[in-house]
Write a structure and sequence with these properties.
The protein is mainly β. It has three domains: 72 residues, Immunoglobulin-like, CATH 2.60.40.4130; 137 residues, Ferric Hydroxamate Uptake Protein, Chain A, domain 1; 642 residues, Beta Barrel (Maltoporin, Chain A). Helix content is 6%, strand content 49%. It contains seven helices and 57 strands. The strands form 13 sheets. The protein has a 22-stranded antiparallel β-barrel. A five-stranded mixed β-sheet has the order 10-15-16-13-14. The longest helix is centred in the first third of the chain and has 18 residues. The radius of gyration is 32 Å and the shape is globular.
Length: 995
Amino acid sequence: MKKSIASLLSLLLLANCLNAQTKVAGSIRNSLNEPLPGVSVHVRNAPAGTVTNSAGQYSIEMPPGRDVLIFKLLGYSIQEIDVAGSSSVDVVLQESTSGLDEVLVVGFGEQSKRRVTGAISSVNEEAFENVSVPVFQRALQGQMPGVVLTNASGGLDAESIIRIRGTGSISAGNQPLIVVDGLILSDRPGSWTMGYPTNPFVGINANDIASVEVLKDAAAAAIYGSRGSNGVILVTTKTGAYHRRPKVNIGYYAGFSEITKRYDLLDGPEYAALFNAAVVSVGGDSSWLYSSPATEPSTDWQDLLLRKGFVQESNISVSGGTPTTKYYVGATFRDEDAYLRTIGLKRYSLRANFGQRLGEKVSLDLSFNPSRVVDQRAGNQFKGSAFGRATWFAPNVNPFDENGHITRDEIVTSNGREWGTANPVVVLEDQWMLLTTSKMLTNANLSWAILPKLRFRSDFGVEFNQEVESRKFGEATDFGYPDGWADELNQQVFNYNWSNQLDWSIYQNHAHEMAATFGMQLARESFHGSYAEASGFPDDRFTSLGYAARGKDANSWTTESAFVGWFARVNYEIKSKYLLDFTARYDGSSRFGSENRYGFFPALAAGWILSEEPFFKIKGIDFLKLRSSIGLTGNADIGDFTYRSSVNYGPEYLERPGFIIQSLENESLTWEKNLQWDAGMDFGFWKNRLHGSFDFFIKDTRDLLLGVPVPATNGVSFLTQNVGRVRNQGFEFLLAADVLRGNFQWTIQVNGATLKNEILKLADNDRNGADDDFVTNSRMLYRTGQSIGSFFLVEYAGVNPANGDALFYNLMDSIVTTASASSRKIVGKAIPSFTGGFTNTFRFKNFDLSAFFHFKTGHKIYVEHDQLYIGHNMASNNNQLKSQLNAWTEANPITDVPQARLGSTNGSQPSTRYLEEGSFLRLNHLTFGHTFNKLGRWETALRVFAAAQNLLTITGFSSPDPDVEFYPPDDSGQGAVRYNLPAARTYTFGFDMNF
């Protein structure tokens, strides 16, 4: 009996031991022997899990019958280790080389590239290395499929017009949302008074950027709700790392720039001869004629304005960390003199990012980014600018006085025609234009690990931006005649974001993983501006308004807006191959009336990693993921008080103050809604030797915020309403291939995107059952069934060989001599059909060579400066392009240039004569470098390089640059050039040193 009891007790004790859980502990480090905090450690096929602490240490209870631990960290290869019989297991994680575990920044979080289900494009810091750009967006041109950039000008701080998957709105904004380290930035550009909109992000230093992600579909952008319709650009700046020794980077480059292409203009004798022919053809007074055209003087005004530009940029950064502190501090100075004399830019930028652990569960991150940009400009995108004036001003004059100085006296040609005192050089030298931009970005982030799988995060960010624009026009200029004129514009933006969120890893084991993010965000922006002008200066050297004898005008204004939103995202993963994501945001905005102030923006996405299926084991296919998404985003980019009835108190009548109605109330005004569907595939073949993605998307914009014409009986001719629908659809691809590996390496990356834009619905104001057309800029048509930005022009038919008359087609395709507005037809579109870029990179030992091209095709550009000024066969007495020498004469009857007729509109009417194909292929960047490794006692890495930008452009476009845009970024009727400064061709030489 005693033996039986003893045996029973022994069996119970053994069973208890067999069922008891065992503890496994250890540390996790990387290949540099640095501890890795935040590593996910869980038991295979069991819910047990934990994460490593700040020292990379973990401890976990192993359930009975479970012996395998899985170690996961974004950016590192997953490891599975059998720990049976072990109580201490240390692990070294290797950085992933497949790219599938690459970390992508998404809205309010991060995800591995492997499990992303939305359409996200990304570039890392390499995209900005050795690229001389004053504004970081310019380095993104052609780098990502479906992301199209066009510069407002080749000017140093010009705005970048960015379209992500097409143009969705007609009257509201089309620029994407830009978020830097979680802070949504204001996108208010500077005044257009100086020739082109200034870039609000000119103070952000490209050297500080770690990565840029572009959220393109609704699944990726819906977490930004009402402001995600135009896409979202997420900029992440560099940080230090805990447990990492200090790393110092020093970089410098310098070089020169030149204009890529000049206007091909008539010289003095050619101009005089064409002028004489134009006078004779209209029976003009013989006293107007030049007596001896061949002996007329000749001045190339472009030569007098242009120069070899100079650019230099230096930067230094220090990063690293202790067990409790991490840091990154970087400073940059850029000094650039443009190829147009007097234009220059200086940028001072500092970024300091700090992280501090406040115990095991709480950490605090702080960032500061002050910058100051001093930009001297020339008002260089209109007829009266120096650059514009250099094209049409009389070339048959002597620009210098008897002392060799530029003359400021009245210029009169030999036939007695007066051209005024404001010759192009005087305009350049006597116009003083200065824009000073001071910006401060600050951000604070508090993170608290409430539980191992539950984390609270609070972010508070502030942006302060001030732009001061000062202009002075000397007494010899058109604007300053007779005694000088000056003005000053001061604009300030104060913007803050505050967000709070909970990140919860609800369930995590080998078969199922679920994570959720819940939060809220408050954003508020205030904008203040003031303006003053004065005239009557005793001397041109005085620039301050206080020296003027007469004050002419003053004004000030203030506006503000606010957004509040609640957001949620749930990610669910089954067996590491079935992916499901749900995102939603409920947003409210002060820009809409009380009836429609809030909107709901959901999105659903799914993915299937087909290559993980047992039945799908195809040799050479390493990774294959199918994904699809559908979702809704919004667009609130309209005026702050558009829904309200407002009046303007500025007017006066008989010296008595008064007001006029400015807008009518529309409380039912609500968001533009963007419904988007996306289907895509990500793949990697032959050990990732070839990898990439394909996407097809349909993006429908509904309830367009459209300025609809209304009867003007109350003084208001337009009312903003929710009317209309636009569709963008297209196909995108990204391919990257390692063509050669080994000592000699050759890699290729190519991306491209097609786009079809179509208006599906517009307003029917006359209630006749058909949508109304409307025309802007006298040439852009908005019509159901057509693309936004359709050119609506009379078709040019050439020249009558019998008499030199310009000919046109009417709607019956009959040839007529009158360019009647009733004969206009759709003749092309401004939106490109196919865009993209490709890079070839070669490496041999320590040498590297990289060439990047980008292209656009399938669109047209209207050349306004040709029609209005320099290509109209002497409709005025302006200088002309050399192409006008081919004008009709009795000896030259077969031509497409009408007879030159002074003061006559013989072919200078708006027509397809001035509409050109805009396709081009441009060599954006060419870089050659050599790296020296392990130099000196600190084992310094030194890379020296030479680089060129805008080296070559292949195009049939006649004007200097096919990749600029005259009209503002949020003008949907784009597609024109008018004296835009062309891009600079830049050559730089420099070094990067790390130790």
